[in-house]
Write a structure and sequence with these properties.
Helix 1 (21-32) crosses helix 5, helix 2 (68-79) runs parallel beside helix 3 (112-121) and helix 5 packs across helix 7. This protein has a single domain, classed as Peptidyl-tRNA hydrolase (Rossmann fold, 3-Layer(aba) Sandwich). The protein is of the alpha/beta class. It has helices at residues 21-32, 68-79, 112-121, 141-145, 151-166, 168-172, 176-188; strands at 2-6, 39-41, 44-51, 54-61, 86-92, 100-104, 126-131. It has a 7-stranded mixed β-sheet with strand order 2-3-4-1-5-7-6, with helices on both faces.
Length: 190
């Protein structure tokens, strides 16, 4: 079983903010593959089903970003899921809006959700990084990540979350190179 974690903050006021790209991607994944409706479990919302023959759980932690690791740990402990079988989808300030990167391990890059997950289960999990850009003034980062996307940015993010869902089978197989190639081809076609 694989665990796909979309990071974000719970509540309507955060629903379309930059920090909630992970939640948006999780919702798109669940819709695309007609997975089960989300239900409250493990300090989060959980959906389950099958993608390309692989049994998956999709988790949206409801602990707020800074405590995401609590929900991830509870889920992993119950289902005995190893970090190598986890894919975390999150926003990344260091990438241009809509840019897409994938890596396994590494540092948290200042992302509090990743810091929390690292503290609870280590860092040997796959990260799907979706760019949200960075404000010019470093002191405005907190307000920036909690602000909504512009209309143009929202269109770009919808496209990227759809591409992540469309090619999730490659991520589940660990074929990150092919995933990025297919994602690039999909973007050119849109």
């Amino acid at each position: 079983m694989k665990l796909v974690v979309g990071l974000g903050n719970p509540g309507a006021s955060y629903a379309h903010t930059r920090h909630n790209v992970g939640f948006m991607a999780a919702d798109t994944l669940v819709r695309r593959y007609c997975l089960s409706p989300f239900r409250s479990r493990f300090k989060g919302q959980v959906s389950e089903g099958t993608v390309a023959g692989e049994k998956i759980l999709v988790l949206k932690p409801e602990t707020f970003m800074n405590l995401s690791g609590e929900s991830v740990l509870a889920t992993c402990s119950f289902f005995k899921i190893a970090p190598k079988d986890i894919i975390v989808i999150h926003d990344d300030l260091d990438l241009m809006p809509g840019a897409l990167r994938v890596k396994t391990g590494g540092g948290a890059g200042g992302h509090n959700g990743l810091k929390s997950i690292d503290a609870h289960i280590g860092n040997n999990y796959m990260r799907v990084r979706i760019g949200i850009g960075r404000p010019d003034d470093k002191s405005k980062v907190a307000d920036y990540v909690l602000s909504p996307f512009s209309a143009a940015e929202a269109t770009e993010i919808d496209s990227v979350t759809d591409i992540v869902a469309q090619h999730m089978d490659l991520l589940l197989k660990g074929d990150t190179g092919r995933f990025l190639n297919e994602a690039a081809i999909s973007r050119k076609g849109k």
